[in-house]
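Technical annex B. To support the medicinal chemistry partners, we prepared a structural model of the target in complex with protoporphyrin IX containing FE, based solely on the information shown next.
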Amino acid sequence: MAALYGLPGDMHHTYIDLHQAYGDTVRIGPNCVSLAGLSARAAIYGISRPIFPKSDFYLPSQASIAGKTYTNLFNTTGEDFHTAIKRPVSRAYAMTTLLEYESFVDAVTKTLLRQLVIRYTNTRSYESKCHLDRWLKYYAYDVVGQITFGQSLGFLELGPDAEPVISQLRPPRLGIAVSQMPNLYQMVLKPLRKWTRQTPPTSPVVEFTVARMKDRAATGTKDSHDQRDMLSRFLKAQKDQPDLIDDVRVTSYATSNVNASADTTAITLCAAFYYLLKNPATMKELEEEIIGAAEAGKISSPCVSWTEAQKLPYLDAVIKEALRMHPAVGMMLERVTPPEGVTIYGRFYPGGTLLGISPWVIARDRVIYGDDADQWRPERWLTGDADRQSKMAGASLTFGGGTRTCIGKNISLLELYKVIPAIIQMFDVSLVKPKDEWRTVNEFLVSQEGLEVDIKRRS
Ligand code: HEM
């Protein structure tokens, strides 16, 4: 049933509705239970042993490299294997390392600003209405390309002409429904592939990555580590541990970056602008903070540094609230109970039961976020004592939890904290048609209309 709900793209609302109707524990499949609340979160995604491994839900997301199906950091269900392949690259994702990439992010940010100026704010501009959601998506793809390969994917330069390429990069909606029925995948699709000797299709991202690796090999930079992008770090890890990290593994590190990062970061950026535009008082507050800081010489222009952005408390509150209001992942993060089973909320689940929580369910939990948990209110992150603040932050599943927490969280934070003030410093953005009837940001994200805005250059 959950799979059928998944097809229209509104599964996150279905989970919330089910938990509102039936409480903390909702059985959604023969062996599958959706849970809510902090105790369940601690039991399933806590970092102490036993770790609940990922379920077969993740198998259909496997791709093919050089004709071989492979598992990556995101979709492997083996915890030991996960630890082994994560260890050699985890430092590449630490914030201290990422700050070396600030100039990469700034370069892409400047391209975004330039495109917006040329296309929408000049007297000779050739496009009237700006679909901000699309530009934020091109931006997120180009940043991850720049950080991973030292080369942007060129989507900002292409503008709307990038759409056909991007549509090939996204997982098909049917694939999402299949992830809810892994037995179908195991029983039908996998044997069928074996029988027809087919592997999952190679994606354009894999092809792009393989081409970049060939460039590196040809130009001799494979071993020298002189280009400090992520690919060079992955190649360095390969040099240190050739038995563990072959060329396919290097490709998988790089492709996971692109596949897992662009849509998620773009959705979060889009949600932030959507809620700010729908709630002008919060936009005004943020504008005053950013423009005031610029006038006082406290932040750089047009690109704000990460360190400067950390001193903008309202920006911080807006980003936390956007991540809470619209987690990019709406499906339940499915895990398998360990062999000895587990008891949660007085109910025993034997080993092999599928349990999980949707990041949306925890984000709307009134016990954690208060009675106005359904509402956009960045101020919730500026009031209350430190304990409450850390309880709210620690409850979030927007970036997942436990050993499988998003490895790219810092990359997306770097983008969010830098590009929002850059856009607001330069432009006055307003919604073309305020649509009060939109229930959530999701409804315009899936609509053809998109986040249509007017942008004017600030004087
Ligand atoms: C706002 C942006 C992002 C959000 C909301 C997000 C969300 C998530 C979530 C919820 C998970 C856990 C999935 C699960 O338990 O099933 C995850 C894992 C992962 N994410 Fe992200 N992500 C974001 C950005 C990124 C970026 C920028 C990258 C890489 C450049 C990335 C790479 C990954 C990888 C490789 C994993 C698997 C980690 C592991 O299991 O060790 N993500 N992400």
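Notes passed to the chemistry partners:
The longest strand covers residues 452-457.
Residues 1-5 have pLDDT under 50 and may be disordered.
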